[in-house]
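(Protein data)
===
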Amino acid sequence: MNTWTVRLSPVLLAIAVVALSAVAGPALGQGIALRGIGPVNESMGGAAVAAPIDAAGALHWNPASISGLAASDMSFGLDLILPTSQLSSRIGAGALGGGFPPVTLEGATSGEPGVTPVPMMAFVRRQEDSPLSYGLGLYGIGGSSVNYPSSPTNPILTPQPPNGLGLGRLSANVDVLQIVPTVAYELSPQLSIGFAPTLTLGRIFASPLFLGDMDDANQDGFPSYPCGVGTRYAWGGGFQVGVYYNADSCWHFGASLKSPQWMEPFRFNTEDELGQPRQVRFRLNYPLIASIGASYTGFEKWILACDVRYFDYANTDGFGSEGMSPTGALTGLDWNNIFSVAVGAQRQIGECFFARMGYCFNENPIDGFAAQFNVASPLIIKHTLHMGCSYVFADNWMFSLAYVHGFENDATGQLHSAAGLIPDTSVTSTISADILSVGVSKRF
């Protein structure tokens, strides 16, 4: 057993970076970024750059578009996100080479991440007889939960050496929140510009803490990762700008740019194998996002919208570099830049009821060499279907409800070490996800 452990444990410990994929937003994100904010925007598939239907979607995707809202708007909402996941791994006899018994180790384990709550609050004030509009958003823009129990049969989830070959219990939680004060100015009845400084807070829990070096403080020859729960929110900031054009026809156009969110290092107070204090630091930023969109209102009581987005992961700290250090610390996820497309439609039925449906497709930022580190990632979901409705009651109060389904997908990678691919090995992740989003808003 010890001989196998010495040979294979560095390979399996390298796969600890699959847990970092929890930073990917609640299982239904375009990478780390959520597709929609609040039930109205969620039910439109996240399309909002040129379709300012509610305060939350307008504030998040295009600050200039708040000038196009029909009235001042105050909204509160909550997303409840439930991923369904399974992680399996296999180490065949061919992985060990000559001199080892022809034994295959394999198993599959279902995750228990539970429900992740993502809150939302948004406010926009339209100034009468003034070209100025302003607003404030406070909402989750990322968050996830990965929670796999230890397993005596699934190699990647067996205990850390010397008692096993893998990682043991594998869990990670991520929360990313953003505060967005926003101002928009109408240069003309058709053209508006907008600007918003952004304040971002992020927190990561991870066990084992694969973001730092393994240590062998007890000198037993079996280095291990510490626990990563002693942390706090890290702060960061950036900005977003946008333009919104309301043509004389029924067409509307918009574009926005979200700068990277430059975060301070994430810090973890942990301990080595002897219980002595140590601190781990890891730098992870939120990527630049560029969006363009169009909407059409030429059909009576209909709004049709489409957004195209670009995510710059390759040049973002924590995402653009690749692999692990010789001491086992994660150096980066080696993600690619990606595009996504969101489409949505709203139909007003009667005076008080609105029905919506949307769809979003995003490329997978993980491929090739990096896929082997990220196979347990919820990011492998590429297709999502969105639907929802709103009902206006009382004095311009509106209740909104949305449901989103992320279609099941799976990814398989081959284990590897610093020397290259390990033959006769594999690790596979299968995942789907569902979101229930509820909210209430007041127009005035």
Summary: Residues 156 and 166 are 4 Å apart (CA to CA).
